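Justification of resources, computational component.

The compute hours requested in this renewal are based largely on the per-chain cost of generating structure records like the one below. Each record pairs the submitted sequence with a full structure-token output. That output is archived, and it is also reused by downstream analysis tasks.
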Amino acid sequence: MSEWVLCGYFLERGPEALALGLAGDWDSREVVLRPAGPVPRHIATDMLLTSRELREGLSWDEAMAQLLGPIDEEGWLLGLGIPPVVSTRIRQWIAQSGKPLKLADITSAFATAWVMAGPVDPAAICRYASIEPGPLRSPASRAEAVLRALPELRHALASQTPLALLVECHARRELLEWPLVPIFAAILQTAIARLQAIWAPATVKAALNSAPKPRPPCGPVEGVRSGAEEVERALGPDGAIAQVMPGYESRPRQREMAMAVAAAISRGEILLAEAGTGIGKSQAYLVPLALHVAATGERGLVSTATRTLQDQLIDHDVPLVRRALNLDLAVTVMKGRSNYLCLRKLVEAYEGARDSLLAEDRLRLLPVLSWALRSEALDLAEFRSDADGTTAEFLASLAANSDTCTGTLCPMRKGCALTRLRNRAVKSDLLIVNHALWFAGSEAEIIPDVHRVVFDEAHTLEDAATEHYTLEISGERLERLVLSLWNPGTEEGTLAAARAALATFAKPQGAALALVDGMCATCNRLLSSSSSLGTLLDALAQRLAHEGPGRTRLRAEHLGHPQYEAVSEAVEAACVELRSLAASLKALAAELDEAEEPDDSGAEVVGGGTSLVTLSSASAEVLRFAEEAEEVVALEDPDRVFYVERTRSSTVLRAAPIEIGQTLAKTVFDRLSTVVLTSATLSVAGNMGYFEDRLGLGALSSRLITASYASEFDFATQACLCVPTDIPDPTDAGWVDRMGAAIVEVVQASRGRALVLFTSRSHLEEVWQARRAEIQDLGFTVYSQLAELSPALAGLRFAEDTHSVLFATRSFFEGVDIPGESLSCVVLTRLPFAVPTDPLVEARRERVGERGGNPREDYYIPQAVITFRQAFGRLIRTRSDRGAVVVLDPRIARKAYGQAFIKSVPECPVVRRSLGWVTQHLIRFFASP
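The structure output for this chain reads:
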């Protein structure tokens, strides 16, 4: 049969085909389709299409006739990344025309075999096949390149496809109306012929339930020395980093910071290092940490604010440092449980798919199965769900979570992602975690012992610690806890696993089974209690709604309210049941400890102490839940602030720590030999006192070293700060409308290329509805963080579409890195003060006052300044960037505290004039070289 490769450009709306290209053995051709609506400028430019060509594009039937009409012989259309909706239209046209063609998406086949890392696109395929494709601007050129690469890809599939996957394909041979036909047909024949026996499902399960051995740590390495001199040499003009990094510029301030980190490591200090944009702080702490790890054999750890920053370190910075220093460090990225594949869920889905009558059910497991057989970490971020049609929802259903984890009772525990993670972590030289996991993992002993820790983006550490140490109670949380033990609907959970395991004992375990039955009955009662508790909390929230929207602070006087008394009584009743449940779990563990070993059926999950870990852990978790619930409803702890909050799914009672310093001293500073706290925003007007106070560092002055390293960028020529003075105060009734009009004028002056930051979700929605069409009429696409599928997708579209505008909320104030022309203007609609009536903010202001401080000057304003600095930092990301920050809040110019904001950002020209003057200044600024 003949083969043709089909590629294209597609708009996400619909989705809609914009251009299609076809390549066969003898010729290639392409067509441009007439779009149903406007085409983003960057897409048309990338395709080298003019507006006229788009206007004169073909209809769908005309395009198909021109593209596929000349084909008369039987064959396969091998599509690369064709959206399902477009694939369906192509198949419909083929059926109507009577053409002897079949369409298959070969993207799925490549992803299934997992022969390539990264996106499956024409460029990646050519790189894998060692082919120089030339420019890939047109669909036809892309199709031609893929056609040339097919032989090499077939060879790769034949040699690298897991045997288990090949057998699964063979078992589904009647369903080969799929990319397996043209790609796998010959491979299957060869592979099946050499099989000694057909694998049974249990064999596939066994293949999954085995973990690769982690590589050993590298240190200590003979001849490697650590210290300030070695660090300075490595980062010098002719140093190790320069040898592997093209265009490397040695930065004096980076070397200074790196030597300070090295000194802190050797002296056991706490280093507070503010590193301005462009310093290269990642290398400044990784180089001395890596040298110390290699020289001493001590394990090091870096904690970041988000998983995105973790990925940046492991994908770019860590490999660079390892290569430069020639150190084969064992590095492990550690994430939260929900980021990993649950093998038990995969096996259950796999077994269910084998019996399904639906072809799509039986086929969609193949890519996941293949990846799981190959993956070492089982990190779901590795899996290219968009490349093979597997939905995000399906992948999410396979994610691990604490609610359904049965721990050591799980039949897939040997291959478990978390077991693998712990084993790799213990053998690692360097761990990369995030702040949330640091606090959770340290307590749960997921993170092995470390003594030298770097906290990057340390300005978020107080929030991360506060979130972790906040206690909460809700009907939803109680339900999740109970369902993790016993789910009567699915008969799953720890108790179900224990009951199944007890059946493997040679002798009946009547007492233990009776305990399990009793606990299941208790769980059923608690499930009813969780529903009632949720209803009572909703009633309480409604009763307190008049005191303010969102979070409502609870004080001692609320104890007498009827609605609160009802909640308190419900919690107390549930806690009685929970304590009984905890005692029964402990008793069951004792029964099993005294029982004989199970028979030889292979279910060694009970006895010998292995199941005792899970049962004892469950008992401790249930008891802890009861203790925390009782503490929350008591409203007594003077060091906590209590409040009720209505979330999207439920109403929650919370008790948050007012101060976190003593807790951090106990869990971080006192237990670690060296702590490096670094960020671009640790100071307010050059003073780090606010940050030191929030983290309780004042009591550790004997170990504390502070240093500030200014940005390497020339903000005086690269940036300007503009404040229109004729905008009304945000407290005025007409501010939102005037602010929206000002955004339109600023965006016009900056020619799009603007990130508009809102402190309020409602303000974003209001301005989006009122001004979106007006901005689009100026020729600029407008994206909204709230309108896109995810913040990450919103940022990606904005970055790719140069002359566009993105409306975003606080999640875009930090951690967003969009260098280049796409982000040339940051519009901050309002100074980012916290809501003064927020219970936590209010309580912390009160505590500052109780200690003799000024709540406004020592807490409220500095907190806003730090956030403002983060927003300002989105603008200049490289030496070639130029741009403006426009603040549509005149208080920065009119109020005395405005100087704290202005003095806290890099020195640059400040324009305080009317909006008309500001927009003219922006036009001149962006027109200048």
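The chain has five domains: 2-199, 224-330+427-469+660-712, 338-412, 471-657, 715-927. The chain is about 50% helix and 15% strand.
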